[in-house]
Amino acid sequence: MTMSGAIRNVLGEMGPSPKIAILRGGGIGDFLSITAALRALKKSVPGAHTTLITTPGLSEFCQRYPSIDRIILAPRYQGVNDGPVDPAKVNQFFAQMRREKLDLALQWHGGGRNSNPFVSSLGARVTAGFRSDDAAALDIWLPYDHHHHEVLRYLDLVTLLGSRTDGVHTELPLVPDDYADLGHLAHSIDLDALREGRYIGFHVSAGAPSRRWPPERFAAVANALLAEHDLAGIIVTAGQGQDSDAAAVISRIEDRRRAINLAGRTSLGGLAALISQLRLYVSNDSGPAHMAVALGTPCVVVFGSGNPINWAPLERAWHRPVADLSSPCRWMVHDGCKDEPTVPCLQGVQVEAVLRETHSLLGLKNIMSWPASCEECSPNLLSEGYVSNSEYKRSGRVILSGQEKSLPITEGGKRGLRKSAARP
Question: Are residues 155 and 188 in the same domain?
Answer without folding.
Answer: no
